[in-house]
UniProtKB/TrEMBL annotation:
<keyword id="KW-0413">Isomerase</keyword>
<feature type="region of interest" description="Disordered">
    <location>
        <begin position="23"/>
        <end position="72"/>
    </location>
</feature>
<protein>
    <recommendedName>
        <fullName>Peptidyl-prolyl cis-trans isomerase</fullName>
        <ecNumber>5.2.1.8</ecNumber>
    </recommendedName>
</protein>
<dbReference type="GO" id="GO:0003755">
    <property type="term" value="F:peptidyl-prolyl cis-trans isomerase activity"/>
</dbReference>
<keyword id="KW-0697">Rotamase</keyword>
<dbReference type="InterPro" id="IPR046357">
    <property type="entry name" value="PPIase_dom_sf"/>
</dbReference>
<dbReference type="InterPro" id="IPR001179">
    <property type="entry name" value="PPIase_FKBP_dom"/>
</dbReference>
<feature type="signal peptide">
    <location>
        <begin position="1"/>
        <end position="24"/>
    </location>
</feature>
<comment type="similarity">
    <text>Belongs to the FKBP-type PPIase family.</text>
</comment>
<keyword id="KW-0732">Signal</keyword>
<feature type="domain" description="PPIase FKBP-type">
    <location>
        <begin position="227"/>
        <end position="315"/>
    </location>
</feature>
<feature type="compositionally biased region" description="Low complexity">
    <location>
        <begin position="25"/>
        <end position="35"/>
    </location>
</feature>
<dbReference type="Pfam" id="PF00254">
    <property type="entry name" value="FKBP_C"/>
</dbReference>
């Protein structure tokens, strides 16, 4: 369900969702390799890198370029960020891609599954800040090094450099005063803090024939656009039976969805919703899985779907 931006496609190893435990690294904050790279440009602009002459290092390292403001990032946080990548080969040192070139941002989860140098760089970073990580073979498994070589990056003779501009840190849940969505047959309990809302759809009432979107908590962020990817926590149930078929809360982490790649009820229902909101969406069959339904999820072609969605970010 996760979208990979053009930058991520250029980095199949770095941001892979299950890239494995971070390997040992000589990086402990700043080190010679990272400190020798000169980075220019403001935090909200594409950075320009100047590399030292000679062969690139084959050990990983990291450093902070711009401090930023606000609370420092912690493990498990999901960041909205813009990433710029360089291949440090000691020759051309070309950049295969940057989110600034695409006019997009992306989500980065601060997790030990990231290469260790990047993981260390992001911990303690602040919104508005910029960090740099040199990713070398000591941060990758043998399989990752082999796979990268097949895709044109030889980590036995080069390293990759990531400059990450931290735009924002996503909340764990929608925050604010909750209101009753006012849909007969549906109940929501909003416990507050970072806890999951409880959705109940056990009812004899007939479901709405059209798509219905009701605000439970109104966010203060920018409105989601139809071409964006959304970071969301959600619970999905079937109208009338209270049968739950999906929940990001139970998986323990929010999910990301490109709105142009999901059912029409989601794309139409979330477009225009301010980031930070909690909304209730009822989706008729024709805007859900259609006449065929989704047998794997236990959804029939006549089922109306009900979601409570926390919109935590958009990129």
């Amino acid at each position: 369900m996760r979208r990979r931006t053009a930058v991520l496609a250029a980095l199949p190893l770095i941001f892979a969702a299950a890239c494995g435990t971070a390997q040992k690294s000589d990086s402990s904050g700043s080190s010679a390799a990272a400190s020798e790279i000169k980075v220019t440009g403001k935090a909200d602009q594409k950075p320009t890198l100047t590399f030292p002459t000679g062969k690139p290092p084959l050990t990983s390292s990291s450093k902070t370029i711009i401090e930023g403001n606000g609370d420092p990032v912690k493990e498990g946080d999901v960041l909205t960020a813009k990433v710029t990548v360089y291949n440090w080969d000691g020759k051309e040192n070309k950049s295969p891609g940057s989110d600034y070139d695409q006019g997009k941002s992306e989500f980065v989860t601060v997790s030990p599954q990231l290469p260790k140098a990047l993981y260390q760089a992001l911990q303690g970073a602040k919104p508005g800040g910029r960090v740099l990580a040199v990713i070398a073979k000591d941060n990758l498994t043998e399989d990752q090094v082999s796979n990268a070589k097949q895709q044109g990056t030889d980590f036995t003779t080069s390293s990759q450099v990531l400059v990450v501009d931290v735009l924002a840190r996503a909340p764990k849940a929608a925050q604010g005063a909750a209101t009753d969505p006012g849909i007969k047959g549906v109940k929501i309990v909003n416990p507050g803090d970072d806890k999951a809302p409880t959705l109940t759809t056990k009812t004899d009432a007939k479901p709405p024939k059209d798509l219905v979107v009701k605000t439970v908590i109104e966010g203060k962020g920018p409105k989601v656009t139809a071409d964006q990817t959304v970071l969301a926590h959600y619970t999905g149930k079937i109208w009338g039976t209270d049968k739950q078929f999906d929940s990001s809360w139970e998986r323990g982490e929010p999910s990301t969805f490109a709105l142009n790649q999901v059912v029409k009820g989601w794309s139409q229902g979330l477009t225009g919703v301010p980031v930070g909101s909690r909304v209730l969406i009822t989706i008729p069959p024709e805007l859900g899985y259609g006449k065929e339904g989704n047998p794997q999820g236990g959804i029939k072609g006549t089922d109306t779907l009900v979601f409570v969605v926390d919109v935590l970010g958009a990129a």
